[in-house]
Amino acid sequence: MSERFAGKVCLVTGASSGIGRATAIAFGQQGASVIVADMNAQAGEEVAAEIKRNGSDAIFVPVNISQLKDVEHMVSVAVSRFGRLDCAVNNAAISGSVTLPTNEYPEDEWNRVIAVNLTGTWYCVKQVLDQMLKQGCGTIVNVSSAAGLRGHSGNVSYAAAKHGVVGLTKTAALECATKNIRVNAVCPTGIETPMMLDGRRNLRNDPKAYEDAANYQAMKRLGKPQEVADVILWLSSEESTFITGHAMAIDGGAFA
Ligand SMILES: NC(=O)c1ccc[n+]([C@@H]2O[C@H](COP(=O)([O-])OP(=O)(O)OC[C@H]3O[C@@H](n4cnc5c(N)ncnc54)[C@H](O)[C@@H]3O)[C@@H](O)[C@H]2O)c1
After folding, report:
1. Which CATH number characterizes residue 235's domain?
2. pTM for this structure?
3. I need a surface site. Which of 54, 94, 109, 113 has the fewest CB within 10 A?
């Protein structure tokens, strides 16, 4: 086990699946105590158990990030159990369930996606920052998307929310730049996770859609959750101490 995060307390939302799961397990493998936070309790408990089997401490905390009370509870459980919070990864999100142009996009779906992906991420940043400001240190990585850097036809709520996450990240980064707290975002393109394979675009059952999604990257493949986790851990580590307010594409050359 590497000790890069030994003694650190790291919180990951959306840690029951995909990118969040890979990130939580990677923090554990590198010595951190990990708070695995998600709506999916069964899968989250399994991730926490895996981290413990690998030799690090971990707890699962149930949370719906679109509820401020849940997010307050998540941070207070983390701090009462581990005494502090060094790294927060605000990763939980939903993909939206319809593909429609902006003028036809349903208001209830807009509200649902914004509530989780933008307001929920803000709740997490807000509560985590309260604790980090008290401690006088910390790192935050928000998981935005390539759809936070460019438009995303047919999915206006998701693109608006993910652009919002970039604005939220840069604003918090400026406010905290002299307070020993760094705030960054990652912006992945297509990554092989349940959201990508089984979500709105259902790539698992549509070989043509899968091929199109792979070809979006210059590397002609989807990314792996671990390839995103590696960047998140770097941005959370002592190896990136002069980087804040960044929205880093993880894109297999797509934006090149
Ligand atoms: N997979 C991709 O291609 C891709 C690309 C760009 C950005 N992203 C972003 O990466 C992040 C992780 O996505 P993923 O692909 O691993 O998805 P995923 O669906 O595999 O995992 C998302 C996790 O978030 C949890 N979650 C959803 N809503 C929640 C809520 N309200 N409160 C708490 N937990 C909730 C789910 O239970 C799930 O465990 C998301 O922010 C997503 O927008 C993914």
Report:
1. 3.40.50.720
2. 0.98
3. 54
